[in-house]
Design a protein that fits this description.
- The structure is a single chain.
- This protein has 12 helices and no strands.
- It has one domain.
- By secondary structure, it is mainly alpha-helical.
- Helix content is 80%, strand content 0%.
- The chain is globular, with a radius of gyration of 28 Å.
- Helix 7 packs across helix 9 and helix 9 runs antiparallel to helix 10.
């Protein structure tokens, strides 16, 4: 009798597996999806890197020199840069991913950063950190205390202090960048 019951149970199991594999696959897929949801996505490292970055006079010199080299190289390699920056994946990428893409697509330009003692990722973090600190300082000067405090919370206090203490030097550098950009956009007048 026991063998008969056991045989019937086995037959039912085998029959259910052969007749309805889709529900079993669906159940397995649901189980796999639940397991993936239980695994949290990796943290975005960019805010941590920006917060940890400490801007100093030496690093500011590295940034400005690297920026000048990158700008000159970008002019000489326009098609490669346009292809890189028009890629939607680049626009939405983390700084780490952007650095890898830049190193792969325009290594002739990012290689120039090494002569200034910087890797591409550090350069991007430095530029972003500087920009965020500048925003915080500008908002603070305009008495926008709440947004300034929020912006300052994302930047290393030493970087913020550096930017506050070197505002004129940074402004002068930014003005030179704008002047160069305008000169490139303005068509040269032919002599008459």
């Amino acid at each position: 009798m026991m063998n008969r019951i056991l045989g019937t149970v086995c037959a039912v199991i085998v029959l259910s597996l052969t007749i309805s594999p889709a529900p079993l696959r669906a159940a397995q897929a649901n189980q796999d999806a639940s397991a993936q949801q239980a695994t949290p996505p990796p943290d975005d490292q960019d805010p941590k890197d920006i917060k940890a970055y400490v801007l100093t006079e030496d690093k500011f010199r590295q940034i400005t020199a690297g920026f000048a080299d990158i700008a000159a190289c970008r002019k000489q390699n326009r098609p490669a840069w346009e292809q890189l920056t028009s890629d939607p994946a680049y626009a939405d990428a983390t700084l780490t991913a952007k650095a890898k893409m830049m190193d792969a697509k325009v290594p002739q330009c990012t290689g120039l950063l090494k002569k200034h003692g910087m890797e591409t990722h550090e350069y991007l973090v430095a530029i972003e950190s500087l920009g965020q600190a500048e925003s915080a300082v500008i908002m603070k000067k305009r008495n926008m205390t709440v947004p300034a405090a929020k912006a300052a919370a994302n930047v290393n206090p030493a970087t913020l202090a550096f930017v506050e203490g070197h505002t004129q030097e940074i402004d002068k550098w930014r003005q030179s960048i704008r002047a160069q950009a305008q000169a490139q956009q303005t068509p040269q007048q032919a002599p008459q």
